[in-house]
């Protein structure tokens, strides 16, 4: 099985996250791996939207989550049995396929029951005493199972329950044995015994089966037609025909109408609950239109997933696409502090204290001796310029500068001009569409001992617009703090022209006493020369938390 690999950044992705995912997936594809796909777990923010549109690069695949679903481990093309099929045909399917459960389907491939080998065996090996003679069948199934043909009337698919008698005795004994039975509920089997055939026809039995390949004796055919007796001729001997007749029962009469089912889009966690809690051996997996997709069993829970992940611009599962903890992580490329869980097997883990993940991706291109095309080079350059604020952030390293120069050559762009265009086009907070989106667009969670904090960041050119919506932003931060049970929830509004950040925060009141930056008004602090959340703001907040 060839797995699909999704290259994906963190939740609430910024430009660096999306650009590095697209860029690294493109590198993998250039190396011949067509199964690698760039993905994102959130909509592009206004800055990233501008860049993708300007460079005419399609959005990555959107993945709301990667929780393993029923469809991911399901074996398609299940062995099924038509509701009109006979028990004999079902037994043949059980024998050929080796399965223990057969979904019973209707003409539209919707399950109408489930037939287990155990249930079928019990029906024939352990019949109740009062049903030893009974055969539930349809005339069509009876003829097909006996390899017989009709000489009067024809078969239909209406189930009927008949009492089976074998005419292998003198006519007097036979007649006395069927006394007391409704003739229209009798199925008589006999060979070339005219007296038995005549007695059965004169009584008007429902079905007469003549075995051994024999024909009706002269004159009996017309009488059978007159008496509305269905006559079947079979090449099988009487003993075999009697055995086969019992196996002509339609599976719809034997199947369990109540069965466990699950949609293919449900998670494996739900499937596990159904399989274990109800102690069932199989659960029928259904498509959206309720047609059968497959049969899920306990082995489905152990089947390998058809996809894995490459994480870029993050390594903590708390920031990853929901469900990442249940999926194999194949690689990590990041420039943040380590906070990842243990992996089950060795993986490629590239991390370096540079200003942008796109710097690391660009370096991988150079290490592989591959030059990115103009679009990808421009996209990687945009990621570096965004995360380093046009190479002004204190996180900027010599490596960022070197890769930016190389990508300038590859893309034909000038970093300073391109960077100004990017920030000028996306610096207005109104571009985000809503106040809530301003906070959520690049919001990340961080944990330190018993504290959880959340920090968003937006870059602007001047603070006038921010002051106009400050109270609304504070209200959103208060709701985020309550919803996510955070110690503090803050928003960094960074003016790239003055290299100053206004920090709006909702949280513990004692923060004001230890913040160590000027408080302009309640909930608002001025942080001059602070532009980096990763290198400046987060370390500072984690330090002062110990004083609160």
Main sheet characteristics: 6 strands, parallel
What is the CATH superfamily label of the largest domain?
inorganic pyrophosphatase (n-terminal core)
Proportion of residues in extended strands: 15-25%
Identify the strand order in the major beta sheet.
3-2-1-16-17-18
Taken together, the total number of domains comes to 3
> What structural class should be given to the helix and strand makeup?
alpha/beta
Give the mean pLDDT: 92
First-residue to last-residue Cα separation: 53 Å
Helix content: 25-40%
β-strand number: 24
- CATH C-level category of the largest domain: Alpha Beta
Number of helices: 20
Q: What is the fold named in CATH at topology level of the largest domain?
A: inorganic pyrophosphatase (n-terminal core)
- Overall geometry comes to elongated
